Amino acid sequence: MRLLSPLQLGSRTAPNRIMFGPHVTNLGNHDRSFSDRHVAYYQRRARGGCGLIVTEGASVHESDWPYERAPRADLCGPSWSSIVEACHAHDAIVIASLDHAGGQGSSAFHQSPLWAPSRVPEVITREVPKWMERDDIQAVIDGFCLATTIALDAGCDGVEINAGQHSLVRQFLSGLTNQRTDEWGMDKTLFARQVISAVRAAGSVSAVIGLRLSCDELAPWAGITPEIAAQLASQLVNEGIDYLVVVRGSIYSTEKTRPDFHEPPMFNRQLCSEIKSRVCIPVFLQGSVIDTQHAEEAIASNHCDAVEMTRAQIADAELVSKLRGQISSRIRPCILCNQTCQVRDVRNPLVTCVVDPRSGYESTDMDEEFPVATPRSVTVIGGGVAGLETARVAALCGHRVAVVERNDTIGGLVAVAGPGKEFVDWLTSECAQLGVTINSGTEWLASTSTDGESVNTDVVIQCTGSLPGIRGYDMQPTAKVFDVAEFRYGTIQLPEVGDIVIQDPIGGPIGIAVAEELGNRAILITPDNVAGNELSRTGDLAPANVRLARAGVRVIRRALLRLVTPTHVEVEDRFTGQISAVPCVAVIDCGFRLPTSTIVDAHMQVGDCVAPRTILEAVLEARRAANAIGNLLVHD
Questions:
Q1: How far, in Å, CA of 59 to CA of 207, rounded?
Q2: How many whole angstroms separate alpha carbon 317 and alpha carbon 332?
Q3: In this structure, what are the phi and psi dihedrals at residue 448, rounded to the nearest 5 degrees?
Q4: Which of 353, 362, 566, 581 fits a 20 to 30 Å CA distance from 345?
């Protein structure tokens, strides 16, 4: 398999062609150094077999403080050493990512102006940066030089220069952000070339120098296009680059560098192939590479020499080991939801993964499930994600596990809504391999089974999910109001003709997906100023509104649903209180949900039956409950 074959990077040889790329984690210390959490996080991927680990981007100059826990290179020497020691023990190559966010940074932390090639306002904050003087430019170039020395002295095998998303280097290369008329604008490659030259001069002959380059800014009126990038890559590589990572996106398309499941996997494959044909160094394919078979095919067909599989390895740190052990079917899938791995926002959450909440918490969470001394008989009530994960982990601990699910199908809402079905399939397969008995279409009775025989179980864990919440609007008789779960399970029939109102007080992916599906029949009612307000956390806010517009969905903003009749709904403007009538034939309620009733015989409750939330909480609490079974005091 080419994916597992060694790859020569300058003077170093990576043991395989899979990269764990640089990304924001918020795991850093408040002094802007890498933390013990970072060490455990990267070590787990190295132990899992990853061949090349590129650490979180470190700012090369004090003028750059893009987010609160952003590492700063001149403060990272000892902590880089700790990461190197931990990862080299498992034969992984460690590369330090060097960065400066320029005009896409933040002044919130250092309370100083942003630095940028030109006075182009930052898209999100609208902050106008400072035009960089010659001394400023030289200071940043010197910063790259110093950062390289520090990283290599710490034991890193090399450095990677960021000229991709959130990058000052890319901002100098692009007509979108470089509108200068001096030599730094007339030759837009000058800054990048001088950075590369300084980094190469600071490094030893054996140091690996990589470049992450945006090869399509998706703004052809002034930005880097694939045609421009092909020439640009060839020119910059000749300055002394050992490998190239092809990415896309710019100041106007930050969400396109790392999009969610709405973008097809491997979306950069053709772009990468075009760039690869112009250079003679290893080229990495980046962009929703989550399937090892697809990655292998991309290498075999000469689209790339290697792949970056960052989110895939956040979802399963043992991806490479499983691939090497020829058990790729057991790789935990990345579902490209971006819900918890995309953490560059004002909440400062730690990086983690909905399908593996241990990610990012390696230094505080147990590393694996251990067999218990006294196995127990466990009944899990509910076959959704919470129930399946509880059953899986309990079986790993050695318990005898049975799942009882009242519906004929397994997986709950996750199996029929959103991108999570692949995860449900994985959980079901894992449970089967571990000997878990799954009884679908079966109602749980406290002391007897459906056939009247007594049930012999030591521990009962409730994972029964949620119910529709209290509706904050009135309904007239015969008005058609359906819960979104009924719609997704296909247990209701919508009228064939007429508009359908989507009641979406949450602003998450559920209501948006329903509206998209119904297209020009859909009228989305939201209390917010924009549809899908909560999607800003996953990077899907702008793309979602584009999709709604293209689908012909009508959006009523700043509105509260007050009354549903057989022929129309009445909505109230949140600001003016004005009531308007909106003709429709039915309403699909995508509102808040409530827990199902507590089962008195259950020893623990897990997931939505405690409080309706997301896949992350269901999986996290399921693992905790399963690991706690051995400590339960169960009365005979």
A1: 20
A2: 9
A3: -135, 155
A4: 362
> Which DSSP state fits 448?
B
For residues 98 and 57, the answer to whether their CB atoms sit within 8 Å is yes
Pairwise CA distance, residues 390 & 620, whole Å: 9
Q: Is 604 helix (H, G, I), strand (E, B) or coil?
A: strand
Can you say whether the dihedral through the CA atoms of 82, 86, 92, 97 is positive or negative? negative
Place of tokens 């890498």: 34
pLDDT value at 59 more than 70: yes
> Which long-range contacts (C-beta less than 8 Å, at least 24 apart) are formed by 265-270?
265/289, 265/290, 265/291, 265/294, 265/336, 266/294, 266/298, 269/298, 269/303, 269/304, 270/303
Give the alpha-carbon dihedral of 215, 218, 219, 220, to 10 degrees. 70
**How far apart (Å, rounded) are the C-alpha atoms in residues 252 and 122?**
9
> Which residues are within 8 A (CB) of 567 and not within 5 positions of it... i.e. 6 or more apart?
583, 584, 585
| pLDDT grade for 452, boundaries at 50, 70 and 90 | very low
Contact assessment for residue 608 and residue 622, using Cβ atoms and an 8 Å cutoff = no
For residues 317 and 359, the answer to whether their CB atoms sit within 8 Å is yes
Contact, 379 vs 459, CB < 8 A? yes
Question: Residue 468: enclosing H or E segment and its boundaries?
Answer: strand 466-468
Tell me the pLDDT band of 479, cut-offs 50, 70 and 90. Answer: very high
Amino acid residing at 47: R
| CA distance linking residue 332 with residue 520, whole number of Å | 37
Tell me the C-alpha distance between 304 and 283, whole Å. 6
Residue 244's φ and ψ, nearest 5 degrees, are -130, 135
* pLDDT(367) > 80: no
In the predicted structure, residue 636 carries a pLDDT above the cut 70: no
What is the pairing mode between strands 559-564 and 554-556? unpaired
- The predicted model gives 184-192 an average pLDDT of 98
Q: What is the DSSP letter of 460?
A: E
Q: What is the DSSP code (8-state) at residue 454?
A: B
CB atoms near residue 317 (< 10 Å): 26
Please say if the pLDDT value at position 162 is more than 90: yes
Q: What is the DSSP string of 322-336?
A: HHHTT-GGGSPPP--
Provide the 10 A C-beta neighbour count for residue 258. Answer: 24
- 385 within 8 A of 423, measured Cβ to Cβ: yes
| The residue type at 487 | F
Pair 459, 634: CB distance under 8 Å: yes
Give the whole-angstrom CA distance, residue 212 versus residue 284.
9
Q: Is the pTM of this model over 0.85?
A: yes
Query: Which residue has tokens 């005979």?
Result: 636
Dihedral over alpha carbons 258, 263, 268, 271 (to 10 degrees) = -120
Report how far residue 588's alpha carbon sits from residue 591's, in angstroms, rounded to the nearest whole number: 9
